[in-house]
């Protein structure tokens, strides 16, 4: 039987877990961050893609998460940093090959989040047929607001989702506009990977994505869910 390890056994001190505050107290420890690509028809059109495509997924590292309204630095290697406001799903129960009818049983709660994107790197990667990792999974690329438990707010499937930059509205959509519902997304994703408590899923963005610069203040609001705020420094 293997012996248990202590901090002294590690070459360096293990990194502290990443966590997101939960409304009315407690912390949600983040395991993995999955993202759904192209889940609002108008955004698909504005990016020049086909609305008939099935859902696909990419990831960000857990430590890309930023909470508490903290500022984020303008990342290196880009001159075209874009905002994307998204509904965030917090998974609270393990499962694989989850049936759509049971998918919402695996949801702990919801939050508003931002999928920050180095759009010029993404465009170059698409053109070359290469992965998007450096366009999406960079440091501090996922500001996320407080998680509201589903036990308190239910499972929102409609309601305005908006983003302002310096008080001027940039993005507006409705959760009802999602091509793939939260339940459908969970069912599909869990066929590829086993979802675990602590995983979060960012569910795509409505139309209106655009560039931000140093000094900009971003605030996203999802009706019935909450808000996310950050600034670029």
TrEMBL record:
Occurrences of domain Fumarylacetoacetase-like C-terminal (ranges): 33-232
Keywords, sorted A to Z: Hydrolase, Metal-binding
Record Pfam families: FAA_hydrolase (PF01557)
SUPFAM superfamilies for the chain: FAH
Gene Ontology molecular functions: acetylpyruvate hydrolase activity; metal ion binding
Gene3D superfamilies with a match to the protein in the record: Fumarylacetoacetase-like, C-terminal domain
Cross-referenced InterPro entries: Fumarylacetoacetase-like_C, Fumarylacetoacetase_C_sf
Coiled-coil residue spans: none
Protein name, UniProt field: Fumarylacetoacetate hydrolase family protein
Naturally occurring in which organism (per UniProt): Devosia oryzisoli
């Amino acid at each position: 039987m293997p012996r248990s390890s202590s901090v002294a056994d590690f070459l360096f001190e293990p990194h502290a877990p990443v966590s997101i505050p939960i409304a009315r107290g407690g912390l949600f420890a983040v395991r993995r961050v999955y993202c759904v690509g192209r889940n609002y028809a108008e955004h698909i059109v504005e990016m020049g893609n086909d609305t008939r495509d099935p859902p696909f997924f990419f990831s960000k590292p857990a430590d890309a998460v930023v909470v508490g309204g903290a500022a984020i630095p303008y990342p290196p290697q880009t001159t075209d940093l874009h905002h994307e406001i998204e509904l965030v799903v917090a998974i609270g129960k393990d499962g694989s090959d989850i049936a759509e009818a049971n998918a919402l049983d695996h949801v702990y709660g919801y939050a508003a989040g931002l999928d920050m994107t180095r759009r010029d790197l993404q465009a170059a990667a698409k053109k070359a047929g290469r992965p998007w990792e450096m366009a999406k999974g960079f440091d501090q690329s996922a500001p996320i607001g407080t998680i509201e438990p589903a036990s308190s707010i239910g499972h929102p499937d409609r309601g305005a989702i908006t983003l302002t930059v310096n008080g001027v509205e940039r993005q507006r959509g409705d959760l009802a506009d999602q091509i793939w519902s939260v339940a459908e997304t969970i069912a599909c994703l869990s066929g590829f990977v086993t979802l675990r408590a602590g995983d979060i899923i960012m569910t795509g963005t409505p139309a209106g994505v655009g560039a931000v610069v140093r000094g900009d203040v971003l605030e996203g609001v999802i009706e019935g869910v909450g808000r996310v705020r950050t600034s670029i420094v």
